Amino acid sequence: DPKIIQKPKYLVAVTGSEKILICEQYLGHNAMYWYRQSAKKPLEFMFSYSYQKLMDNQTASSRFQPQSSKKNHLDLQITALKPDDSATYFCASSQDRHAEQFFGPGTRLTVL
Amino acid sequence: GDQVEQSPSALSLHEGTGSALRCNFTTTMRAVQWFRKNSRGSLINLFYLASGTKENGRLKSAFDSKERYSTLHIRDAQLEDSGTYFCAAEDMGYKLTFGTGTSLLVDP
Fold it and tell me: Average pLDDT of chain A?
């Protein structure tokens, strides 16, 4: 059974629209993260949350807004989508800070 | 910012042989993780080290925080070991900084 679920697996959006990427983890972890992998680049850290509180934000744009409705959920809302936002977005979780991180299967976003 | 330099970018091994992948860090890192990307694009956890060495089957990893590097050794390579391997270094915060990956091809 998958322990970290990301939905949808693939997503196509038009420029200027808004989308929400879903992430749920069933590992009982207290920390959750978002990373992004653009074409031919390494995975890049975006956000970290611990006990549903924002701990670190390395994303310059306010168009990216994490949302944590429950301890095991960390969704990512992206507004005013641009073609440059096209990437695979990975959610991850760890038991706590300074612990092994486990990654979801990713959501591949294409912005036309 | 923090950087992780991973080498080699590509590696070809004959079945039964071995080699090592390496990551160098530009700053002191707290821990390192090694992953393999499977055919579906998912990241499979291989190792998490805060110091020293760990071994799991034909894989062995080492991390030296002071010298700012980590290695992943593969011995007796098998066809199913083919894939892309990534190191990721954990800084003093929450962030993992990923290397650019090593594409490993094991042939008969």
Answer: 94
